[in-house]
Amino acid sequence: MVLKNFACTVPRFLSYLRLRKMVHLSGALFPVLAIYSGKEVALGFVLFLTLLFLGIEPIKPKIRTSSFFRLLWRKNEYERFAIEPLLYLLSILSLLLLSYRLDEGICYASIVVLAVGDGLATIVGIHGKMCYGGSSKTIEGTLAGILGAAICSFPFAGPTALAGAIAGMYVESRSCRHDNLTVPFAALLGMLAVQFLVNIYISITA
């Protein structure tokens, strides 16, 4: 009965653009780049990619017949502006900038939740058998996202990374659009909230 309640009844995509997903996962390298080469280098690289993307968008009608184009853009993005890749880049750019003001490790971990957690949720999710009610997203995808995001972001935020992974993947499981924006900032808020509560507990018990 329990498994029946999670039966997938909503039509869903059973494939994904592999190259696009590899690019998505590679976003986890930006925190590493920021640590070993400096934030300015990481920011410059993300800004370059953002400008490159904005430069390509106007000429999409001319290059959409190329095989490379079809490996990166979804069919519904052929004729209209591809907002999701832009939100992905802007989220990483914003979190790198916020790392100057907020906890650096938490900002980096939020980028990892976006790149790894959201990426794995799709890769594993399309093979999942248990869906949320009225949704095409699967429980298996969410669990894979939480596990992958928590493990990969642990070096940056420690145990707090688990809170970010759970918060980010919860939002991902509920989002229909713009999860490249909502997921990383949900993770950020989740980790900041846990950090705040821990600091209060330490100050009370000290």
Notable traits:
single chain, 206 residues, mainly alpha, globular
What does this entry look like structurally?
The structure is a single chain. The protein has helices at 2-5, 18-25, 29-37, 39-56, 60-63, 67-72, 83-98, 104-125, 139-157, 160-174, 179-205. The chain is mainly α and 206 residues long. It is 72% helix and 0% strand. The relative contact order is 0.14. The chain has eleven helices and no strands.
Mean of residue pLDDT values:
87
Number of helices: 11
User: How many beta-strand segments?
Assistant: 0
Strand content: under 5%
**Low-confidence blocks of residues:** none
- Dominant shape: globular
Radius of gyration, Cα only, in angstroms? 18 Å
Coarse structural class: mainly alpha
Tell me about the largest β-sheet.
Answer: none
**Terminal Cα span:** 49 Å
Order of helices and strands: HHHHHHHHHHH
Helical fraction equals: over 70%
